[in-house]
Design goal:
The chain has 3 domains: 2-163, Beta-Lactamase (2-Layer Sandwich), CATH 3.30.450; 197-330, Nucleotide cyclase, GGDEF domain (Alpha-Beta Plaits, 2-Layer Sandwich); 333-416, Orthogonal Bundle (Arc Repressor Mutant, subunit A), CATH 1.10.10. It is built from 17 helices and 10 strands. The protein has helices at 2-13, 24-35, 60-68, 73-82, 84-90, 143-163, 167-175, 185-192, 217-231, 254-272, 290-303, 318-331, 340-351, 355-364, 369-376, 380-394, 401-416, and strands at residues 38-42, 48-51, 94-97, 108-116, 124-133, 200-207, 236-240, 243-248, 276-284, 311-313. The protein has a 5-stranded antiparallel beta sheet, with helices on both faces. Strands 7-8-6-9-10 form a 5-stranded mixed beta sheet, with helices on both faces.
């Protein structure tokens, strides 16, 4: 029996030796047979993806997790407090989670499911975790080694599933312009059962929460799929990079689409603590223009990061979009960066001064010294002195509209790349 266990354990460590037809449920059963105990495989949000057979020694946590398809919130909270999830997401170690009799929870071993991208060894995807509950008998001595091998297999299985889109998913990606090439709108409409004619709307969403609080784009895509399908049953969703795009076929009314989008953003912010921004392209003439509409949405999302508008369109944000794209152009060409600004920044650093802030306030108030001084909380004469110093250092006359315009552009570029004004800002 020990020899059989060692053989299967070796197969678990050597991922290439596992049969290609194994799935997560089969993997869970293999782990249980070789490590002892009972197994559940979960995604990063603690939703149960697969599990092995249970017996009478299954504790309340396992029963509730399998019945509800996710761990009970109160226990998940305890695990977060213990730092278990942080360790699962940041390392490949096997974690020994002790029993808690007061919570009716038995001992568990856990390991994160992490997969390194084939294209970049520095990119590691967190795909979930494997949990091994100890039953009435002790776990096998090599249970930790078995879990390490199983985590490697699970990473490959889940990653393949995520990276191998269905025929429908490929059609949707092509529709949104993610696969390149022309789109046969009529063929796509037939395949996806969409109205072939008539205007549509495209809405793009991005989560602007901090990295610690951010929701995975695939999870956000699932949430938006449910909401969009409730709004219109034939809606189509695509998750591309960190953004989710929704196609609403047959919609002519920008007002209706905007009202739905605003309500959705507010609800998800309140109920799920998501910090969403959305951009709308409407109307879209036909399905052949969806990729162009997505590009329009991206223009708006790229250029309205600093605005307070959570939901907007290209028409509403034209100034921010065009200004952002002008700065992209200037930022990409080092010869368009004014070297004189470096002298002003160096002066501020050397003398612990704030001439740049004074210049920005002065320009923002269109040369109104009293208004700018009030905003800076300094005496107007102090600001007048600072502006004279700015002019001397830069060799500019801020009474000249051309000098003012150039300085505003250079300061705006510096706010984007504060560490080095000569930095070429990458596109996109």
């Amino acid at each position: 029996m020990a020899g059989d266990a060692e053989l299967v354990g070796t197969e678990l460590v050597g991922t290439e030796l596992v049969g290609t037809d194994v799935d997560l449920f089969g993997l869970a059963q293999m782990i249980a047979q070789n490590a002892g105990g009972m197994v559940s495989i979960e995604d990063p949000q603690s939703h149960v993806l697969a599990y092995s057979a249970s017996d009478e020694s299954a504790d309340q946590l396992r029963v509730l997790s399998i019945l509800g398809r996710e761990g009970p919130p109160e226990y998940l909270s305890v695990l977060r407090k213990w730092g278990v999830f942080d360790r699962l997401h940041s390392s490949d170690e096997v974690i020994d989670v002790p029993a808690r009799e007061e919570l009716n929870i038995k001992r568990r071993l856990a390991i994160g499911i992490r997969h390194t991208a084939d294209s970049d060894a520095n990119v590691v995807r967190v795909l979930g975790a494997i949990w091994l509950q100890q039953g009435d008998r002790p776990l096998e001595p090599d249970a930790a080694e078995t879990l390490r091998g199983a985590a490697a297999i699970a990473g490959r299985l889940i990653s393949r599933s995520l990276d191998a889109p269905s025929t429908e998913a490929l059609l949707i990606r092509r529709l949104f312009g993610a696969e390149g090439g022309a789109v046969d709108a009529a063929a796509v409409a037939r395949a996806l059962n969409l109205p072939p004619n008539g205007p549509a709307a495209v809405v793009g969403f991005v989560n602007t929460a901090t990295p610690q609080a951010a929701t995975e784009p695939t999870v956000l895509g699932g949430i938006l799929r449910l909401r969009a399908s409730s709004f219109r049953a034939d809606s189509v969703i695509a998750t591309l990079g960190d953004r989710v795009y929704v196609l609403l076929p047959g919609y002519r009314s920008a007002q209706t689409v905007t009202a739905w989008t605003r309500q959705l953003v507010e609800q998800l912010e309140t109920k799920r603590s998501l910090a969403l921004r959305a951009a709308i392209a409407c109307p879209v003439a036909d399905l052949g223009r969806v990729a162009d509409a997505r590009a329009e949405v991206d223009r708006v999302l790229d250029s309205t990061i600093a605005t307070k508008r959570r939901v907007t369109t290209l028409a509403e944000s034209r100034t921010a979009v065009l200004l952002g794209e002008l700065l992209d152009l200037v930022g990409s060409r080092a010869e368009l960066h004014d070297p004189r600004l470096r002298g002003l920044l160096d002066y501020d650093r050397k003398h612990s001064a704030s001439l740049r802030d004074s210049a920005q306030s002065y320009l923002r108030e269109h040369g109104d010294v009293r208004a700018a001084a009030a905003a800076l909380r300094v005496h107007p004469n102090t600001l007048r002195y600072r502006i004279r110093r700015v002019e001397e250092i830069l060799g500019m006359n801020l009474g000249d509209p051309a000098d003012r315009l150039l300085l505003e552009i250079q300061l705006a570029l510096h706010r984007r790349t504060p560490d080095d004004v000569t930095m070429v800002r990458p596109k996109g």
